[in-house]
Amino acid sequence: MIVKKEIYIPLVENIKELVTISEKDIQLIIDAFKPKELAKKEILLFKGDTSNHMRFITEGCLRSYYINEEGQEYIVQLGIKNWWVNDLFSYLTKTPAQHFVQALQPTIVLQVHRDTLENLFKTVPVMERFFRIKMQNAYVANQNRTLKSMSETAELRYLNFMKKYRDIEQVVPQYMVASYLGITPEHLSTIRKRLHQ
Amino acid sequence: MIVKKEIYIPLVENIKELVTISEKDIQLIIDAFKPKELAKKEILLFKGDTSNHMRFITEGCLRSYYINEEGQEYIVQLGIKNWWVNDLFSYLTKTPAQHFVQALQPTIVLQVHRDTLENLFKTVPVMERFFRIKMQNAYVANQNRTLKSMSETAELRYLNFMKKYRDIEQVVPQYMVASYLGITPEHLSTIRKRLHQ
DNA sequence: AGCCTTTCTTAAGATATCTTAATTTTTTTA
DNA sequence: TAAAAAAATTAAGATATCTTAAGAAAGGCT
């Protein structure tokens, strides 16, 4: 398989933001991560399957969502280029995924299998640190999301979402933004109307 | 300073749940973590101060909370024996804490300074893995909390809280449980009344 | 270009939760 | 143990958000 080197650039840059890696490390990392192309609407991870890969978006857009007993969808995460998206619980515990992961645009992900990653931790130990820091940052971001979801009105949450994730807001249907914010599409529509007046 | 060994037992057990450590490792870990006693209501970390320690509750109860511009308190985390409680963002970024951390009962924490912990990672490398896994688990738990806070009614959230954290519910004032659940104390009271009928 | 599907908007009535304020109960302190 | 302080309850009216249903707008496909 011929691998175009340039699709790995965002991944390498993303790692370099947090830790120092040598040229040799970079090659080992590139060897570990495999590209996967997804069509729009294609599902990358099905509920019930075990997630065995860590996944980095190098191009496009993914959402992770779960469907409750009543068939309602809840968006857990939206991600574009340079984001890591997964069902972490499934990945970490090797249990069936609770979430789906789906492409919202034509997308390329770079994914590394758990076993390969464990080996990579041995050959490039700094990657273990990278993932620890990545988790820490994700944890803090998520804690803030929880806090905001409880303390702020939907309108304020929407305004902050727009400020923070303008890139995402561009490519994601509005009803999915609503789902991410924990409100109905109708209510988001009402909020937008009020804001534009 | 004479350190009573037994207060370290919960910490060592907590670590052993996730990783394998030798007797020598245990001694290094014990040397790294310093005990701190707190009176009820005593504040362990003030907003504005930088959090320089990772903290494990070996006895008692802590809450981490933030106060918004209008003076309202929001509880970020409640923890009892065997829980790790901190303002992680402050710890990780060395920026002023956004949260307070306060003892709700007479409490003993074991805390390790960031610098000491970084050294411990070198002498006991498996501790880096321990904290990575710990973060991962915390992340998943928090993600579920976000999702539930958006998709479930306050009543259901309260019922699940009681099921999951009965130990915490015993020792924490009800209005703080309400704050943790993201509702007013009055509303929680109404819910409890309805449940008991 | 036109049809079909998806997404967005609008509005009315229903429900969940909040705000305020007064009262009761429990806990702490002197 | 009495007084003071903190916590919990109750209830009424206000507000935020949801549900339902219908129509309008936008996007995708042949």
Which SSEs are present, and which pair or pack?
The structure is a homodimer of 197-residue chains.
Chain A: H1 9-16, H2 23-32, E1 34-38, E2 43-45, E3 53-59, E4 61-67, E5 73-80, H3 88-93, E6 100-103, E7 107-113, H4 114-123, H5 126-151, H6 154-164, H7 166-171, H8 174-181, H9 185-196
Helix pairs in contact in A: 2-4, 8-9
Chain A binds a DNA duplex (30 and 30 nucleotides) through α9.
Count of extended strands of chain A? 7
According to CATH, the homologous superfamily of the largest domain in chain A is Jelly Rolls
End-to-end Cα distance of chain A, whole Å, is 55 Å
The chain-level mean pLDDT of chain A equals 91
Largest interface: A-B, 28 and 29 residues
Overview features:
homodimer, 197 residues, alpha+beta, Jelly Rolls, 2 domains, 3-stranded antiparallel sheet, globular, DNA-binding
Please explain how this structure is put together.
Two copies of one chain form a homodimer. Chain A is of the alpha+beta class. Chain A folds into two domains: 5-151, Jelly Rolls; 153-197, no CATH class. Helices cover 49% and strands 21% of the residues of chain A. Chain A is built from nine helices and seven strands. In chain A, the strands form two sheets. Chain A has a four-stranded antiparallel sheet. The first copy, chain A, has a three-stranded antiparallel sheet with strand order 1-7-3. Chains A and B meet through α3 and α5 of A and α3 and α5 of B. Chain A binds a DNA duplex (30 and 30 nucleotides) through α9.
